[in-house]
Amino acid sequence: MSKILKFTQFSIRDLIVAAAPTVLTIVGICLLAYWLVDPAPPRTVRLGTGQENSAYEEFGKKYAAVLAKHGVKVTLVPSAGSSENLRNLKAGKVDIAFMQSGSTNEEAAEREGLTSLGSLFVEPLWLFLREEKGKPPVTRLTDLRGKKINYGPKGAGSPRLFRQILELNGVEKGEVERFSLANTPATVELLEGRIDGLVFTSAPEAPLIQMLLQTPGIKLFDFNQAEAYSRKLPFLTHVMLPQGIVDLGRNLPAEDYHLIAPTATLVGREDLHPALVDLFVQAAAGIHGGAGWFQQQGQFPSAKYTEIPVDAEAAKFYKSGPPFLQRYMTFWLANFFDRMWVLVVALGALILPLSKVVPPLYVWRIRSRVYKWYGQLRAVEQKVEDAPAATRMQVYEEQLRRLDEIEELVNQVSIPLSFADGLYGLRSHIQFVRKRILFLMGDASPTAPEAVPV
């Protein structure tokens, strides 16, 4: 029978097993906190743009290209314009969209759960009219009575705005024959002479604006009362289209034009992930931050010029610039570390109390290897005590063999040296039970020599 005892200084395996429930609990709670308290930003986002060949469409493509570099897919959702984008935001059909100032107000935006990511650029109200030979040019909006003007499709921002402008001039509904074509077909109708003019609000980067400004026979209306309009409608800004800005060589336009302009704003739903807000605002700084026809370098994007409350993350960007980590890391890596504070809080709350459970579990696991054999010893003693007189010797012999089996198994137990006293105590107790059985066997045998009880 082998008497080799397997001792180690420390049981890594037992420590791992004892700590496993605690570690799994901590990991599980941390993962739950990581995903529920501050979920990862989505990989896709829906951006409401505008009509074909509009500035909203062109800028939407630029945003999609910038965010694609960071692993975020931007799905462009075309619309008639600002008003339809507002409806789509309210209905949850888009996550973020271009809108022009004046489309809603602060109370309505808060009620609908909308938030501004900042104003991006001014988009003047362009009124292009077909010049008619032999007739004086249109210099006042009251001169539009009886003319065919395309206001833009339903859902665009220009029909509502132009209707307000006409009302300020005393032009009643019905005095101007209204058309509601999209910008591209309306431009065709204007060039073919089937309508007298068209209206739309857009940044000058829109292809249709660039084309119409250089088309012979098409004249841009000069809002020479622009300052008065900006006082009457506070969401409007008086801007100047400088002489020669389109083409200096051809001196297009040949004079300065006064225009009135709402401001284009990037509006999102209030549940838009903060990391995506950061990404869109940073993209806006790159796309709209330069000098333009109506803006100075760095004037846009801005937290100004919007009646919708500015998102907290966007306001932080306008005040302090991009998040610190995003200046030196990729978007996803910076976002991961930025969200690690959730894990730090969870770990701080869990590790200290749960770590106190591990040492007792470790001690119990080691000592249980010894303690479980005491049940076997007690069973042997019970059978010896309950043995019938007729079969007593047979029971004693069986229990001695059982003790040999127990001792053999105990000798194979491996425990750390710091717990060896328990194992040696068990072996001495096995020996004690063996001597007691031998004493009883000697006492029960008629021919045995006198035995001395232990």
From TrEMBL:
Alphabetical list of InterPro entries matching this protein: TRAP_TAXI
TM region positions: 12-37, 340-364
Q: Which Pfam families match?
A: NMT1_3 (PF16868)
Q: Which UniProt keywords apply?
A: Membrane, Transmembrane, Transmembrane helix
Protein's name in the database: TAXI family TRAP transporter solute-binding subunit
**Which taxonomic lineage is given here?**
Bacteria, Pseudomonadati, Pseudomonadota, Betaproteobacteria, Burkholderiales
